[in-house]
Amino acid sequence: MKERKKISRRAFLKGTAAAAGIGGATLALKGTAKAAPAKVWKLKLQSNWTGIGIGAQDESAKLFCERVNKLSGGRIEMKNYDAEVLLGIGETFKGVGSGVADVAVTSPIYHRGIVPVAYYLWAVPFFPNDHLEFMELWYQVLGGKELWREAYAKHGVMHLTYECSDEWGTMVSTKPVRKFSDYKGMKVRAFGIWADWLVHNGASIVTVPGGEIYTAIQTKIIDAAAFGCPDAWAGAKLYEVCKYFINPSIIPYDTCEIIMNLKTFNEMPPDLQEVMLSAARIHNLDITSRTIVQDAKARKVLKEKGMETIFIPDDELKKAEEWCWNKFLSAKGKDPYIDRLINIYTEARAYHRDYFGPKRLP
């Protein structure tokens, strides 16, 4: 049996001290190396409706930027740009895809010529987007989100979330409208299936940017306009050029959206991707909750400024609802994404009737 070599206590301590010295030197060298600074993502947010008098949009955009910057720990610095500053409203989708703006709050209706399904993602008149939980049903559960992202990815755009924006489809008008046939001969600013319905009733459609509606009415380019919520009407002082406020909104909440350059999104680390997605979803709640308050105040303003509120009767609305839904269904076969959306909306509409119908109060 081999004899074990004895090590004296002094030799052991000496060796330990030497090893500690080497380790300490190594740690010291590591300590002197500077950590590479974290990349800061500077993002430009093009908001299509800030700076034009819509309080809910102004407040929500400010909160969106603050939340992104804070949640990212300073690794993202996002700055908002008001309407038309970086991109015109019709240029927003392509501009985000090409990187002129990194992020945008916009509406799918403005790029319907590029992505056909966007025409219907924005809204189908009278489709019951009257509860946030209902919108979450067709978006989160029935496949709306996946459809949206697939359709946009082909154009270099990442769809972050829908925006449950505001009521859409009340009209400001220079002429009284008490039934839909009264639109015959009128020049109207509108779009989507609602514009198709108005044309069906004898109106002609004139395309006017939202920020130019006041001047267009004042100069008689148009007689009436659908644009957004009562807050938008009051903010733009349209009571100065229009006497009539035509109700109800034929779209309880129009579906806007937040989009982002897909390449930029994909280059972000997963935690910052989640920051963008989560902050966008919270923005949706910000805009929805503020819209109700602002619109309630705005309706009072419109009345106080002398506008006459007119309500289209229920029998007229029922005819319009049926016509608009059938118009939507008639798009089947034109585009695979539209076909998928028809299935999603049809299923969601049935759920709405089964769930909310028995709960309606007299």
Radius of gyration: 28 Å
Please indicate the count of domains: 2
**Biggest sheet record:** 6 strands, mixed
Strand arrangement, major sheet: 7-6-8-5-9-11
Output mean pLDDT.
Answer: 89
Q: Find the count of extended strands (DSSP E, 2+ residues).
A: 11
Q: Uncertain spans, ≥5 residues at pLDDT below 50?
A: 16-32
Question: Into which percentage range does the β-strand content fall?
Answer: 5-15%
CATH architecture of the largest domain: 3-Layer(aba) Sandwich
CATH class of the largest domain: Alpha Beta
Cα(first) to Cα(last) distance is 101 Å
Give the helices and strands as they follow along the chain. Answer: HEHEHEHHHEEEHEHEHEEHHEHH
Q: Helix count, per DSSP?
A: 13
Short description:
The chain has 362 residues and is of the alpha/beta class. The chain has two domains: 41-165 and 254-296, Bacterial extracellular solute-binding protein, family 7 (D-Maltodextrin-Binding Protein, domain 2), CATH 3.40.190.170; 171-252 and 307-359, D-Maltodextrin-Binding Protein, domain 2 (3-Layer(aba) Sandwich). The chain contains 13 helices and eleven strands.
Q: Any overview of this molecule?
A:
Helix 7 (193-200) packs across helix 12. The relative contact order is 0.15. The chain has 2 domains: 41-165 and 254-296, Bacterial extracellular solute-binding protein, family 7 (D-Maltodextrin-Binding Protein, domain 2, 3-Layer(aba) Sandwich); 171-252 and 307-359, 3-Layer(aba) Sandwich (D-Maltodextrin-Binding Protein, domain 2). The protein is an alpha/beta fold. The protein has 13 helices and 11 strands. The strands form 2 sheets. The protein has a 6-stranded mixed β-sheet with strand order 7-6-8-5-9-11, covered by helices on one side.
